[in-house]
Amino acid sequence: MGGVSRTMVDILLEQGHPVRAFVRQDDERAHSLRQAGAEVCPHPAGEAERLRQAG
To answer: How would residue 47 be classed by pLDDT, with cut points 50, 70 and 90?
Structure first.
C-alpha cells in the first residue's frame, strides 16, 4: 500500500469511518490494515465482478 493510501486509511479510521481495503495479496500489509481496523478484501487484479459484489 502506498504511503498516501495508508495515511488516508489511518485518518478515516481515527475519525470513526468504516474502511474497506481492496488488496491484491493477503500479505503483511493486509494484516497491518486489519490490525488498524479496516475490512480487508483480497482480490486478484482484474476481477471486476468480485469488486462490484463487494461494493
So the answer is: low
- Tell me how far apart the alpha carbons of residues 3 and 5 are, in angstroms, rounded to a whole number: 6
17: containing domain: 3-54
Query: What's the whole-model pTM score?
Result: 0.72
* Burial (CB count within 10 angstroms: exposed 0-12, middle 13-18, buried 19+), residue 25: exposed
Q: How many domains does the chain have?
A: 1
Instruction: Confirm if 23 and 30 have CB atoms less than 8 A apart.
Output: yes
Alpha helices, DSSP H only, in the chain?
A: 3-14, 28-36, 48-54
